[in-house]
Amino acid sequence: MQVIETLAQGLKRELKVVIPAKDMEARMNERLAEVKDRVKINGFRPGKVPVAHLKKVYGKSIMADLVNEIVRDKPTEILSGRGEKSATQPEIAMTEDEAEADKILNAQADLEFTVAYEIIPAIELKDVSGIKVTREVVEIAEDEVNEQILKIAESARSYESKKGKAANGDRVTIDYLGKVDGVAFDGGKDEDAELVLGSNRFIPGFEEQLVGLKAGDEKVITVTFPAEYPAANLAGKEATFDITVKDVAGAQDIEINDELATKLGLESADKLKEIVRGQIESQYGNLTRQKVKRQILDQLDELYQFETPERLVEAEFENIWRQINTDLQQAGKTFADEETTEEEARAEYRKLAERRVRLGLVLSEIGEKAGVQVSDDELQRSLFEQLRQFPGQEKQILDYFKNTPGAAASLRAPLFEEKVVDHLLGEISVTDKTVSKEELTADDEETEGKAAKKAPAKKKAAAKAEATEGEEAAAPKKKAPAKKKAADDSAE
C-alpha cells in the first residue's frame, strides 16, 4: 500500500491511497481459500472446487467486500499511523467509471482512492493558575423560603363559601356556555367549574368580568380569543359566555405549620422548609455556576487562539443559525426589528461558532490530559433524565439513542464538559462574593461572553449557551391537554 499526501494546507489534508492489483488479488485468493471447504457448488464435492472456478463464481463479490472493508477501515489506520485526528468523518472518493471499477474488481487495476479531512490542531496546554473568577453566592433569607412555601401551598389553600360579591382571590363555582355568532362551540361548556379570580387561567377578559358577581347571579360576558389561540376556528374570534354563578368562596389564610406540611405530603413544617430551601439553593447554584463557567470560558478564549477546522465551525454555525431563525419566526420578528441585518448577524454568529469549536477542543484536550472520564452509570442517569422530561415518548427516545450514530455522544459531551469545568475549578483562583438575588439574576450582557455581546436578539441560543454548554436555548413550551375546556385552554 502506498500513501501519498497530495494536500497539506492549514488544517486540510488530502491523501491518495494506492493498493496494487497484485496485493488485492492475493487478499482475494486468501478469502477464496478460507471459503473453499464451506462452499457448495453442484457437480463438485465439498472442498474439491477448483480455485479458478471459485474465482469465476465468487471473485468479484469477494473483491467488492474487500474494497468496502479497506475503504471503511484503512483511513482510520492511516491517520493513526500519521499521528493525526480527523475533526469530522473523512471524505472518501474513488472512481465512478464503471469500466475502471470493473477492472479493480477483476484485479486488473490498482485500487485507488482519496481521503480528504481536516486535522484537529495540536493544542499546547497553558498554565491556568492565573485565571481568576468570582463566584457569586446568595444568602437565602427565611422570608424568601416562607414566600416560596406560600406559593407552593396555593394548591392546598382552603376556601369557605361566603355571602356577597366575588373579589380577586375568591374562588367562584360557575356553569358556562360559550358561543360564537350565537352558536355554541365544542369545548366551550362546563358545569361546576371552579376558578380562582386573578389566577389568569382563562382567556384574557374572562375572569375580570366575574368580579362583583354573587352566588345565584347570571351574566353574559363578551371576550375575544387571542389571535394565536391553538384552535383555528376560535383564534381571534369574539365570543359570548352565558355565566351562572353557583358559589363564591373566600380564601382562607395559609399558615406554615405541621398541618400544612402534612397536606403537602411531608411530616413537618421544618422538613417542608428544608426541602424548599434546598430547591432555592439549587436554582441559585445553577445560576452561580453558569456565571462562573462563562468567566472561565472567556479567559480560556483569551489564552487560546488557533485555527479551527472549517467543517466543525460550519456545522456549529448551522445549528446556531437554525435556532436563531426559529426564534425570530416564533417571535414574528425580522433582523431589522433587532436593529441588525442578516449579513451582520451571520458574521457575529460565525464568530461565536468559531469560539464554541475552539473552546470545545481546548476543554477536550484539558479533560483528556487530566484523565476525565464519563462513566456508563452517568450516561445512564443522563438518559433517564431525558426520558423523565418527555413522558409517553420513552420508546421513541430509546430507539433514537439506540439507532442514531453519535447520539450517545450528545449525552456524553455536556457531562464531560461539566467534569472538565469541575477540574478547572480546582486549578484556578476562585473568590466567593455574597450578592443579592437581584444581582445574581441580573441580565448582565457582559457575562454572556465577548463573542455574543453584540449579537442580535439577545434571547437566542447562541447568547445563552456559552461555547459548548450543550444546553437548549429556550425551555420547551407546555402543551395544553387535548380535551381542556376552551375558555380554560388558552392560559394553560
UniProtKB/TrEMBL annotation:
<dbReference type="InterPro" id="IPR037041">
    <property type="entry name" value="Trigger_fac_C_sf"/>
</dbReference>
<dbReference type="InterPro" id="IPR027304">
    <property type="entry name" value="Trigger_fact/SurA_dom_sf"/>
</dbReference>
<keyword id="KW-0963">Cytoplasm</keyword>
<dbReference type="GO" id="GO:0044183">
    <property type="term" value="F:protein folding chaperone"/>
</dbReference>
<dbReference type="GO" id="GO:0051083">
    <property type="term" value="P:'de novo' cotranslational protein folding"/>
</dbReference>
<feature type="compositionally biased region" description="Basic residues">
    <location>
        <begin position="452"/>
        <end position="462"/>
    </location>
</feature>
<comment type="similarity">
    <text>Belongs to the FKBP-type PPIase family. Tig subfamily.</text>
</comment>
<keyword id="KW-0413">Isomerase</keyword>
<dbReference type="Pfam" id="PF05698">
    <property type="entry name" value="Trigger_C"/>
</dbReference>
<comment type="function">
    <text>Involved in protein export. Acts as a chaperone by maintaining the newly synthesized protein in an open conformation. Functions as a peptidyl-prolyl cis-trans isomerase.</text>
</comment>
<dbReference type="GO" id="GO:0043022">
    <property type="term" value="F:ribosome binding"/>
</dbReference>
<feature type="domain" description="PPIase FKBP-type">
    <location>
        <begin position="169"/>
        <end position="270"/>
    </location>
</feature>
<keyword id="KW-0132">Cell division</keyword>
<dbReference type="InterPro" id="IPR008880">
    <property type="entry name" value="Trigger_fac_C"/>
</dbReference>
<dbReference type="InterPro" id="IPR001179">
    <property type="entry name" value="PPIase_FKBP_dom"/>
</dbReference>
<protein>
    <recommendedName>
        <fullName>Trigger factor</fullName>
        <ecNumber>5.2.1.8</ecNumber>
    </recommendedName>
</protein>
<dbReference type="Pfam" id="PF00254">
    <property type="entry name" value="FKBP_C"/>
</dbReference>
<feature type="region of interest" description="Disordered">
    <location>
        <begin position="435"/>
        <end position="492"/>
    </location>
</feature>
<dbReference type="GO" id="GO:0005737">
    <property type="term" value="C:cytoplasm"/>
</dbReference>
<dbReference type="Pfam" id="PF05697">
    <property type="entry name" value="Trigger_N"/>
</dbReference>
<dbReference type="InterPro" id="IPR008881">
    <property type="entry name" value="Trigger_fac_ribosome-bd_bac"/>
</dbReference>
<dbReference type="InterPro" id="IPR036611">
    <property type="entry name" value="Trigger_fac_ribosome-bd_sf"/>
</dbReference>
<dbReference type="GO" id="GO:0003755">
    <property type="term" value="F:peptidyl-prolyl cis-trans isomerase activity"/>
</dbReference>
<keyword id="KW-0131">Cell cycle</keyword>
<keyword id="KW-0143">Chaperone</keyword>
<dbReference type="InterPro" id="IPR005215">
    <property type="entry name" value="Trig_fac"/>
</dbReference>
<dbReference type="GO" id="GO:0043335">
    <property type="term" value="P:protein unfolding"/>
</dbReference>
<keyword id="KW-0697">Rotamase</keyword>
<dbReference type="InterPro" id="IPR046357">
    <property type="entry name" value="PPIase_dom_sf"/>
</dbReference>
<dbReference type="GO" id="GO:0051301">
    <property type="term" value="P:cell division"/>
</dbReference>
<dbReference type="GO" id="GO:0015031">
    <property type="term" value="P:protein transport"/>
</dbReference>
